[in-house]
């Protein structure tokens, strides 16, 4: 029985984790959901690597580094359904607010101008920023979009339950950009 | 307010009784109208919904946003319903597959042209652009965002102009000219570089023509014009004054 439950993964790219918080905001519906799915990867699971085969992957956050692109391409290959989860994934949203400035200016502002103790731009151990933060669907094919900042818990729950049943849901007014 | 009584302001009003009455079809329904009523006005009188963004009851029509496009049988181009007038026997479709497809594309392009970050916008939850996205079922934008670098003018003591949210509907320009009579707002440049400006592109706060009446702020469909001191989602526009002022003025004209 347990083997038939769909394997679900969640991923956190350039976002604030608010979408994951909203997922947890599902209250008692989470109990119901937990019986229907296997959560196999994500910030809520203690697994280091993205598994080989996943049915549904929710990706929060925009694509802002080479590392994000690598993760995104890998999870796309290994997931049957990819959901663009929240406004940052769908539109670049708040992380994308840096896009109108040159990358040098952004780093200068964040790591030099506003730092009083040993200001320096980090180079080792952190992924290199791309000039722009971009939505997921500009890099890979996305199967379902779940806008909202964050998407309301009900909208996430509705999207997941429909996908589990094999239907691609119409969200209607359950959520919106900036919800 | 219904838009049925709203006439385009700059058209000459002929004496009552001299208007031809036309019969034509909208979505296969027979409708009748005066020849000087736009397709949009006639549709609304008949409870046929056509989405709009730049149109506002009480202001002249401008045809800027093109979201009210409709299909006319045997016409090659889609036409904006707000500035197109019916002809006898015309067959109009407001929701054909082609119309819906183009409407979605137009709205998506509006989102790519400026930086519409709903999550941090003063008008979040009270925005006509956002509402249209829900109505047209737009869950994502298929075009590349342009992320232009745009300024914010906070020089006015009471109001803020944020070009990041402007959709160039030009309601501000029209209300300032047609209702307030100040004509502080105007437009400069063309295409992607188009901007609304105050006076001859000077900071709003140093404008000598602005009367600080705030009508432009209240008619703005997005968070482009807002009141100072409003935080995210706090800017709710109040438009009640517009149909009232327009009605009073029509009395004066009569």
From TrEMBL, chain A:
Residues 16-162 form the NADH:ubiquinone oxidoreductase-like 20kDa subunit domain. InterPro entries: Hydrogenase_assoc-protein (IPR051349), NADH_UbQ_OxRdtase-like_20kDa (IPR006137), NiFe_Hase_small_N_sf (IPR037024). It holds the Pfam family Oxidored_q6. GO terms for molecular function: DNA binding; iron-sulfur cluster binding; oxidoreductase activity. GO terms for cellular component: periplasmic space. Gene3D superfamilies: NADH:ubiquinone oxidoreductase-like, 20kDa subunit (3.40.50.700). Signal peptide: none annotated. Transmembrane segments: none annotated. It is found in: Periplasm. SUPFAM superfamilies: HydA/Nqo6-like. Keywords: Homeobox, Oxidoreductase, Periplasm. The keyword Oxidoreductase applies. The keyword Ion transport does not apply. This is NAD(P)-dependent nickel-iron dehydrogenase subunit HoxY.
TrEMBL record, chain B:
Keywords: 2Fe-2S, 4Fe-4S, Homeobox, Iron, Iron-sulfur, Membrane, Metal-binding, NAD, Translocase. It holds the Pfam family Fer4_Nqo3. SUPFAM superfamilies: 2Fe-2S ferredoxin-like (SSF54292), 4Fe-4S ferredoxins (SSF54862). Residues 157-188, 201-230 form the 4Fe-4S ferredoxin-type domain. GO terms for molecular function: 2 iron, 2 sulfur cluster binding; 4 iron, 4 sulfur cluster binding; DNA binding; metal ion binding; oxidoreductase activity. One of its GO terms (cellular component) is membrane. Residues 98-137 form the 4Fe-4S His(Cys)3-ligated-type domain. The keyword Zinc does not apply. InterPro entries: 2Fe-2S_ferredoxin-like_sf (IPR036010), 2Fe-2S_ferredoxin-type (IPR001041), 4Fe4S_Fe-S-bd (IPR017896), 4Fe4S_Fe_S_CS (IPR017900), NAD-red_Hydgase_HoxS_gsu (IPR016214), NADH_UbQ_OxRdtase_ferredoxin (IPR054351), NADH_UbQ_OxRdtase_Gsu_4Fe4S-bd (IPR019574), PSI_iron-sulfur_center (IPR050157). The keyword Phosphoprotein does not apply. It is found in: Membrane. Residues 20-98 form the 2Fe-2S ferredoxin-type domain. It comes from the Bacteria. Its cofactor is [4Fe-4S] cluster; [2Fe-2S] cluster. NCBIfam families: PRK07569.1. Belongs to the complex I 75 kDa subunit family. This is NAD(P)-dependent nickel-iron dehydrogenase diaphorase component subunit HoxU. It comes from Desulfopila aestuarii DSM 18488.
């Amino acid at each position: 029985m347990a083997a038939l439950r769909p394997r679900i993964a969640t991923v956190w790219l350039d976002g604030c984790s608010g979408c994951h918080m909203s997922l947890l905001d599902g209250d008692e519906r989470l109990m119901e959901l937990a019986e229907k799915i296997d959560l196999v990867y994500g910030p809520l699971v203690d697994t280091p690597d993205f598994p080989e085969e996943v049915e549904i992957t929710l990706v929060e956050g925009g694509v802002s580094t080479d590392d994000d692109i690598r993760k995104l391409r890998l999870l796309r290959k290994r997931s049957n359904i990819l959901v663009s989860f929240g406004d940052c994934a769908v539109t670049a949203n708040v992380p994308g607010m840096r896009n109108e400035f040159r990358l040098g200016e952004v780093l200068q502002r964040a790591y030099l101008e506003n730092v009083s103790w040993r200001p320096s731009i980090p180079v080792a151990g952190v992924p290199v920023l791309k000039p722009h933060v971009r939505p997921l669907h500009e890099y890979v094919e996305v199967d379902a979009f779940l806008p909202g900042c964050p998407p309301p818990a009900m909208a996430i729950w509705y999207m997941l339950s429909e996908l589990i049943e094999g239907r691609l849901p119409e969200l209607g007014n359950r959520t919106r950009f900036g919800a | 307010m219904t838009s049925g009584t709203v006439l385009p302001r700059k058209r000459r009003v002929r004496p009552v009784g001299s208007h031809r009455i036309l019969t034509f079809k909208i979505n296969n329904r027979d409708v009748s109208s005066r020849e000087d009523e736009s397709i949009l006005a006639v549709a609304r009188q008949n409870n046929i919904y056509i989405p709009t963004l730049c149109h506002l009851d009480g202001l002249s029509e401008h045809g800027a946003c093109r979201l009210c496009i409709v299909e006319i049988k045997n016409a090659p181009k889609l036409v904006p319903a707000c500035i197109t007038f019916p002809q006898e026997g015309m067959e109009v479709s407001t929701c054909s597959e082609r119309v819906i497809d183009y409407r979605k594309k137009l709205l998506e392009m509006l989102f790519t042209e400026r930086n519409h970050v709903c999550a941090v916008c003063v008008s979040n939850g009270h925005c006509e652009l956002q509402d249209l996205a829900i109505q047209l079922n737009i869950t994502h934008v298929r075009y590349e965002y342009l992320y232009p670098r745009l300024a914010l003018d906070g020089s006015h003591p009471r109001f803020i102009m944020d070009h990041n949210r402007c959709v160039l509907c030009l309601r501000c320009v029209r209300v300032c000219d047609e209702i307030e009579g100040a004509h502080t707002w105007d437009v400069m440049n063309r295409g992607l570089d188009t901007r609304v400006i105050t006076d001859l592109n000077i900071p709003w706060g140093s404008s000598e023509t602005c009367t600080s009446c705030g009508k432009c702020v209240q008619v703005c469909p997005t968070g482009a014009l807002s009141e100072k001191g409003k935080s995210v989602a706090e800017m709710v526009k109040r438009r009640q004054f517009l149909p009232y002022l327009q009605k009073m003025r029509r009395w004066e004209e009569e």
